[in-house]
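#struct-help
A.M.: can someone run this one for me? Single chain, 327 residues.
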Amino acid sequence: MRDTWPLLQTIPFPALRRRSISTLQVNVGYRCNQSCVHCHVNAGPGRTEEMTGETIDLVIEVLNRRRIETLDVTGGAPELNPHFRRLVGTARKRGVKVIDRCNLTILEEPDHADLADFLAAEEVEIIASLPCYRECNVDQQRGRGVFATSIRALRRLNALGYGRDGSGLVLNLVYNPQGPSLPPPQAALEADYRRELGADHGVRFNNLLTLANMPIQRFGATLLAKREFARYLALLQSAHHADNLAKVMCRDLVSVDWQGFLYDCDFNQMLDLPLSPRGNGCTDRLHLATLLDPTFVSRSIRVAGHCFGCTAGQGSSCGGALDEAAE
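D.P.: on it. Structure tokens below:
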């Protein structure tokens, strides 16, 4: 797989500073029951990287010590980590909001028959990847039969109360473009999803989040192989909106990899650009234990060409579009 970093590091991006750490985004492992073309983590069934119980304990201690508001758990398929439920349950007991970035198909894996019930009982917010409301498009991107499995999983979550107003069980869906293009306006696409999924499958959800594909890992290598990398980067740069800089996720988030090392965001984690008190060009590698010191503050954020993926057009973050008016 060809690495896009040598190209990305030469592209300047406006300087960014962190405001605070209200969200701890924890990647508990790269193993997944799927292998998607757009996956910036390069996750798949053959990956073996997995966060240990000791590091999970440290995550919990950091949540307590720094009074983190939100724990955002990701992977791979995060539910495949054997300590996933302990992490979620402990965080919820301490009043921390927990987000599970779920691929939906994991709910039908043999060893996870009660997973949906667990998530509902803990009132975990689910952010579920469903790259289209049409079967042919989803199966093309994620594999044959994935759409049908995802619909069954969504119906099961709906039956538990997810996606229903007033239930307290939030179910958000995620859209990624299939190729090197920007996502369409989020509100309009959400209306399409709501109409098509409701009419054809009886599925309910709270919000649709549109995310741009990052030119790194598997997707970046595909762009290089098809000689579309330069065109896609030019598109991201030309669509940059400065107003989105104030809303990008790294301003209030720290990302943690499966070994416990810290990054400014999940994308920097995949590029192996560790969080550093001194920003770009520094090779320091900080661990979760650093956050146990309540006086530790890291304001500098490492940036490069891939960051235009978060500021182009309506913007893109772990919470979806940043400013739909930009479209």
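A.M.: thanks! Strands lie at 23-27, 70-74, 97-102, 125-129, 171-175, 207-210, 253-256, 262-263.
D.P.: also worth noting: The two ends are 33 Å apart (CA to CA).
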